[in-house]
Amino acid sequence: MSLVTSKEMLLKAQEGGYAVGAFNVENMEMVKAVIAAAEELNAPVMLQTTPSTVKYGTLETYVGIVAAEAKKASVPVALHLDHGSSFDLAVRAIKEGYTSVMIDGSALSFEENIDVTKRVVAVAAPNNIPVEAELGKVGGKEDDLEADGDTNTDPAQAAEFVERTGVTSLAVAIGTAHGFYVGTPVLDKERLSEIRKVVDIPLVLHGASGLSDEDVMDCVKRGICKVNFATELRVAYTDAVKDLLKEKPETFDPKAFGKVGIPAVKELVKSRMKVCGCENKA
To answer: How many Cα atoms are found within 13 Å in the side-chain-facing hemisphere of 158?
Structure first.
């Protein structure tokens, strides 16, 4: 089927008590792997690109690749701009064919975050494109965004933010971090439950690579409807290529790298989809 927006799949997840897996992709092979996993599990899926990935490959290229693969799929596939770094980039993504966008104003003041989010929503809404925003700061590093520590989302601010911006989903900070964790993450799950009580739109968990299955499942039970996975997909792909080169150092055909990378990423994605509970939810 053609690319769909993320709005319906996230609302269904919210109603059904599961989460949609959202997976960052860097190349054609990772796109194929993620969609193949979704097909095998009959699961809705979101594919994501960050600003650095867009800079590497361009919006047009990723739209072309993902749209072509989605057309062959029988499950709903959405293409999402992850951590949109500016109003201009979010608008360009909408114009080029992304079916979901995030504007990340979490590094700004509360009022500035509201302002830039409202501006993106004003462009996206007439085009029926859902908008994700972030309130609070998720730790670790994502592209050029880096936080030394976590500033967790305030429930009262979250309720005000959603009401004033008209955003359709909200990424919350509860102690997760981008990248892999140095120590054992301590998540403020009670805060997540408090946010769920006062915010009625789908909630998003960033920084899930490296979290235990139990932590992810508990967050989904408490109201998370979308879970982002990025770093561990890159590692799975790269480790498969490294193993090939260790075994056959004479390999020079890039297709050989893809042939080992695709199944490695696909199996990882399948395992994460099962944790999210979105198997057979397409």
So the answer is: 30
- Which pTM does this prediction carry? 0.92
pLDDT, tens digit, 9 for 90 and up, residues 203-246? 999 988 878 999 999 999 999 999 999 999 999 999 999 999 99
Distances (CA, A) of 2 to 57, 69, 74, 104, 262: 21, 9, 9, 27, 22
DSSP letters along 112-164, please?
HHHHHHHHHHHHHGGGT--EEEEESB-EEEETTEEESS-BPPPHHHHHHHHHH
Q: What number of H helices and E strands is found in the chain? A: 11, 11
Comparing CA positions, the residue from 212, 242, 230 lying closest to residue 269 is: 230
Q: Is 243 in the active site?
A: no
Sign of CA dihedral 63, 67, 20, 267: negative
What is the SS3 assignment for 281?
Answer: coil
pLDDT tens, position by position, 39-66 = 999 999 999 999 999 999 999 999 999 9
Report how far residue 224's alpha carbon sits from residue 252's, in angstroms, rounded to the nearest whole number: 43
Which residue among the candidates 82, 104, 154, 215 is catalytic per the annotation?
82
